[in-house]
């Protein structure tokens, strides 16, 4: 590990990497085997895996190591959402409800959020990167040609050359919809909403996607009067329609004003407040709020990456194949994973792609000098000491060359079994296609739906439990292709479905997977009974 780091740091000498040609680098050029651009969760994992056959790997990061997920997305947003779920869970159990005597303490929630976001300090993640034997380079990376980059940090520019491969993991940035005057009212993006220091009295949210519904839930529970402006006819449009309906009811119960079919036309300041002109099914209306959160989607982080120097268009997503190699660039040296590919939009699926691309790079460009596996959480040697030998062999060029779907070298699940948990109250969790998507793809599916409140475990879990689940069965292959769960803690029920879908477990075999009594998971038994078993 240490050897890899040293090689990278002394690259301009020991590794024979000195020389010009790397943009405006002033002759100061490092050379490593592999460069990873972006040290978000995805870049960190790709770099760690890529280093497993002894390749020297440098990770370049312009902001905080850990990326969006750690400081401005998954972790802080869940910290804002968890208190509301915990209070609601206690209030739903007779006897326990008496213990809830006050409302949510917004200031304490924001302090808890800061703690979960490591107080916006990446020291522990830097320690992990260094412990894994990777070289961290602070700065903004830009391509200047094939496998060649410049890194700009604090006004100084250095060159960096990858001997074998570059993996782009630069994530995504929020989009600002073309609403007249919106940019002038200092709108919040998801970064501002997840790192806010105070709770606005009146909050308008533009966009009813994942960020919109999660932040509407969090801020309503923290005490804001929230208006959710949804362009389409339902919230959370990628989910099953029944999930959108249950979620819309829950948001209204929380006091969120839902404006469906709403188009925001213009925004302007009005004293200390903001006015929004909104057109909807009931005509025109002007909304006065204290803050506007824009949650209208994201675009890939490729605008300022020098893509034009390698024949790609800046601003566009990097298209990749199932080995995460960028298509449209010759030479087999460019890879990408995470949000920047537009192929995955969650941390867990991006990290799956990162494991695949890391193994592909480790196999294709193996230096033969290493081969020790590291634990991606600790950076420690997983194969040292008296431990049992690993059950899976280290990446190898031979294995990768013949690799097919569902091998560790191909991100096959991206097209079949992507799990998504939306941490609203109730949670909405699904894997695989929706019924409409499956039918559009020509799959012979039958949907089996069940009211979760009718399961014995639900009556114990919460009085007045509200939830519904649905599985999609391929009637020809007799396997599950998708599932959706809506209810308290529904996200915790999802992984069983993901395993059934990925494993293509026949429903006749699933019959033998007996859910424990009295858990809400007993719904699995009801599904199979409804299928005729
Ligand atoms: C509010 C919110 C909540 C979310 N909640 C969840 C959730 O609960 N669960 C979930 O699975 N997903 C969630 N997501 C999605 C998840 O955050 C992303 O899918 C994930 O962060 C993508 O990781 P990434 O590494 O591709 O990008 P990022 O995390 O954005 O990392 C990219 C890194 O690259 C760096 N970078 C960019 N350009 C350069 C450059 N030129 N040079 C050097 N460095 C550069 C950036 O500084 C950044 O650190 C959420 C997203 C949002 C917005
Ligand atoms: N729990 C999680 O896994 C989680 C949580 C938050 C975000 N994310 C990810 O982050 C990404 C970004 O989330 P997001 O919610 O910003 O994007 P999104 O694409 O999920 O939703 C954006 C929504 O905004 C709407 N929209 C676009 N322009 C609009 C306009 N002018 N007026 C009104 N509505 C408009 C779109 O129709 C869409 O419904 C997503 O890919 C999501 O998967 C994941």
From TrEMBL:
Residues 374-383 have a biased composition (Polar residues). GO terms for biological process: 2-oxoglutarate metabolic process. It comes from the Bacteria. Its cofactor is FAD. NAD(+) binds at residues 207-214, 297. Residues 1-12 have a biased composition (Low complexity). Residues 33-348 form the FAD/NAD(P)-binding domain. Keywords: FAD, Flavoprotein, NAD, Nucleotide-binding. Transmembrane segments: none annotated. Residues 13-25 have a biased composition (Gly residues). Disulfide bonds join 69-74. GO terms for molecular function: dihydrolipoyl dehydrogenase (NADH) activity; flavin adenine dinucleotide binding. FAD binds at residues 78, 170-172, 339. Residues 1-25, 367-406 are annotated as: Disordered. Belongs to the class-I pyridine nucleotide-disulfide oxidoreductase family. This is Dihydrolipoamide dehydrogenase.
